[in-house]
Amino acid sequence: MQRPLLEQPERLEQRLKEIPPEPGCYLMRDSDDRLLYVGKSKTLRSRVRSYFRSSHDLSPRIRLMVRQICEIEFIVTDSEAEALALESNLIKNQQPHFNVLLKDDKKYPYLCITWSEPYPRDFEVHLIVFTDPM
Fold first, then answer.
1. b/e for 36-74, b at 16 or more Cβ within 10 A?
2. What whole-number distance in Å separates Cα of residue 134 and Cα of residue 116?
3. Cα 57 to the chain's mean position, in Å?
4. Phi/psi of residue 77, nearest 5 degrees
5. Is 40 strand, coil or helix?
6. Cβ pair 37, 98 in contact under 8 A
7. SS3 of 3, please?
8. Contacts of 121 (CB under 8 A, 6+ apart)
9. Could you give the CA distance from residue 22 to residue 114 in angstroms, rounded to a whole number?
């Protein structure tokens, strides 16, 4: 059984150095290799490091999670939007204990506004298409 990273400062620092600064998702696991949390970031390295700086800035729930983290994995994506979609899929499929949002079948809401009509309308969409309003 592996010890939490907080109890192994050298290993923690080495692991944090290995995380790239690109966008992507990070997965945090406990000593039994259970997935605790899935997150996304446009800068993986700085986001993951933020969990291990000052625990005073973290909520009690996240402080509890950080004390249990034994391994950190990451998946680099081409964009922040891709990381957002990947995070949503991972949470829905894996159901990590500390992720409280996106565990059901909810999706990120997208709103479309029609600019080409005399009175613009709005409606929910599931695919984003950006067009020039002119």
1. bbbbbbbebbebbeebbeeeeebeeeeeebbebbbbbeb
2. 8
3. 18
4. -120, 170
5. strand
6. yes
7. coil
8. 113, 114
9. 34
Q: Which tokens sit at 73?
A: 């994995």
Tokens 């192994």 belong to residue: 8
The structural domains of the chain, ordered by start, are 5-105 (3.40.1440.10)
Two tokens, residue 4 = 């939490």
Write down how long the chain is: 134
The continuous run of DSSP H or E covering 39 comes out as strand 35-41
Query: Is residue 106 within 8 Å of residue 41, measured between CB atoms?
Result: no
Q: What is the pLDDT along the chain (134 residues), one digit of tens a residue?
A: 789 999 999 999 999 999 999 999 999 999 999 999 999 999 999 999 999 987 778 899 999 999 999 999 999 999 999 999 999 999 999 999 999 875 555 555 666 677 788 887 766 655 444 445 54
